[in-house]
Amino acid sequence: MRTGAAAGHVGYFHEAAYYDSEAQLLDILLPFLSGGLEAGEPTLVAFGEAHAALVQRAMPHLTGITYLSGGDMYARPAGAIHAYRKLLADLVAEGATQIRIVGELAPWMFGATWDWWCRYESAINRAYNDFPLWSMCAYDTTATPPHVLADVSRTHPMIAAPGALHHVNPGFVDPAVLLGQHRPPAEDPLQQHPPVVDLTDPTPNDARQAVLAKAPESVSRRDLETFVTAVSEAVTNAIRHGRPPVLVRLWTGADRVLLTVTDHGAGLSDPYAGLLPRNGLEPGGLGLWLTHQLCSHVAMYRDRDSFTIRLTGGRPDPDHN
Amino acid sequence: MNGGDLIGFRDQARGRDHVCFAFGEPVEFRQAVRSFLAEGLAAGYRVVAVVSQAGEEESWRRDEVLGPALANGQAEIVLSGPAYGEAVVVDPFVRVGLCQTATEQALNSGFKDLRIAADVTSSLDTPAGVDAYAHYEYLVDRYIAASSMSGLCGYDRGVIREPDLAQMACLHPSANTQAAAPFRLYTGPDGGCVIAGYLDFNGLELLRSTLERTRLPDAGHLPIDASRLEFVDHNSMLALEAAARSHSATVVLRSRAPHLRHLAELLELTAVRVEVAG
C-alpha cells in the first residue's frame, strides 16, 4: 500500500525538491524520511558527503535510514538506472510496498555532461515506473545553473515543497517527447582542432585499431579497452542499422578521447535507446546500451541528413577533474 | 621453424605446425609444399606429399629436394584415394585414425616426426563435406598438438566458396595471407582450447558455425585460453553463451582483459565465465 503524497499512485512518483537553504532542504526531507520509516518502507538517502552528514546531524532520531554512497553507481546514467532497477527489484522481492529515496546529482554533472544527466532524469520516469518508488531529487536553486533548473522542471512531474506540500508540475514534458529531441551537445573543446583519425566506411576492426594507435598514454589501459569496445559497438550499429557512408572521427586530449560515428540514416526511433534496460530494445539496442555503460559520456543527435553518436573516454568533462 | 613468407604466419607458440594454405594457382601450392616438406626433411621427419594425379608423383620424383628423399624412403608420395579427396564426406574420426597410424609407423621406422602436405580441396565439395571436414580439422589439430605430426592443408581459392575457406582457416593455428579469418580456434600446446584474433560482428556467423562444427562437449567446464584474443564484442559473447547453454556446459574464458569480465557481468551471462589473469 502506498503512503504519503504517493498514496494511490501506481508506479514511480517522481518529485523535484527545490531548496535555497539547508533549513529549507531539511524542512522538505523530515516528513518524507520520517514518514517512510513510520510506514516501515525502505527509506534511502543518496546524497554526497556533506548533505548526508547534514541529514544525520539534523535527524539523529531517525534510525533505519539507508545511506547510499553513490560512487560508481553515478559514474554514468545508464549505470545508475541499471543499479537502481536491481536495487528496487530486490526490495520489492523482499516485500516492500513502497520505497522512498531522496538523492542529489553532484554539481560536476551540471557541466559539459549535463545533457545526458538530463536524459537520465527524463528516462527514469519510465525506467523506474515498474516499481512503487517515491523519490525526491534535491536541487539547490542558489547553485544550480538556470539551464539545468529549466531541464529539471521539464523532467519531474511533481514538485515537493516545504510544509509537506506536493503539487503537479505544469512544466513537465513527456519523456518520449523530450528524449526524442536529441538536442546536440555543447561542442567539446577538442573538436576545435582537426581530428587525428578520419575514416570513411571503416570496419569495426579498422576503427578499433585506429583508436588504439592514437589514444594518449595517459588514458589507462582498462579505460582504453572499455572505450574501444564502445567504439566497436557504435561503428557496428552504424554499419548494420544506419546508412553509408559511415564517418568515424577521433580527437585526443591529455587524458581523454572523443570519437564521433556519423551515418546518413534516420537515427534512432526509440527515444529511450541506450538508457533503458536491454530487454525489448530496437535492433542495435543492446550495443547502444553497452556503449552507454562503457563511456564517460555519450551524446546522440541528428541533423537534416545524418545521425551522429559522440563517445567520450577518460575524463568526461574538460572543465572537471 | 619458419618457412618465411612463402607459407605465411606460423604460430610459434603452438609448437606443432598445422597450416592452412590457400592458393590461387597450383604452382603456389607446389612451392609451399616443397618448402614445408624440405623443412621436415632437414629436421629428420618422414614427409608425405598427397597428390591427386599420377603425373604429380613423377614431377616430385624429379624434384631436386624431394627426389632424393623419395629414393631413400624418407619421403613418400600418396595418390589421393580413400584417404584424401575422393570421399565426398570424410569420416573425421576415421581420418584422424589414419593420421595416427601413419605417425606411429614413421616413429617406428626411426623418424622423429611425420609431416604431411595435402591439397584437400575436393573434400569440401558439398555442405555435408564442409561440415565433416571442419570437424576433422578441429580433431586433427587436437591430435597434432599432442603428437609427432605436422600438416599443411591446401585449399584452392578458385574452387572453394569464401565462407568455407574462412571456416577451414579459422581451425588452423597458422595460415597464409590468402586464408584470412578474423579469429583462429585451435588446440594449445597444453591440449586446451585457444581462441586468438578478434571476435566481432564480421566474424559472428563464422564463430557460430565453428562452435557448432567443433561440437563442444556436453556438460562440464570448457576452459578457453583467450589471452591472445584482441577483442570480443557482445554478439560474440552471446554466441558463446548460446553454444555453452545448448550443451549444458560452462565456457571459462581465461583472459588478460579485465573489461571482458565487466562485459560478461553487464550481459548477465550464466554459461560464460571470465577469469582474468596477469
Q: What does this protein structure show overall?
A:
The complex is a heterodimer of chains A (321) and B (278). Chain A has 321 residues and is of the alpha/beta class. Chain A has 9 helices and 12 strands. In chain A, the strands form 2 sheets. In chain A, strands 3-2-4-5-1-6-7 form a 7-stranded mixed β-sheet, with helices on both faces. Chain A has a 5-stranded antiparallel β-sheet with strand order 8-9-10-12-11, with helices on one face. Chain B has 278 residues and is of the alpha/beta class. Helix content of chain B is 39%, strand content 24%. Chain B contains 9 helices and 12 strands. In chain B, the strands form 2 sheets. Chain B has a 6-stranded parallel β-sheet with strand order 3-2-4-5-1-6, sandwiched between helices. In chain B, strands 7, 8, 9, 10, 11 and 12 form a 6-stranded mixed β-sheet that branches. In chain B, strand 7 (183-187) and strand 8 (193-199) form a beta hairpin. In chain B, helix 4 (92-108) packs parallel to helix 5 (127-146). Chain A binds chain B through residues 82, 203-205, 208, 222, 225-226, 228-229, 232-233, 236, 239-240, 286-287, 290, 293-294, and chain B through 182, 198, 200-202, 231, 233-235, 257-259, 262-263, 266.
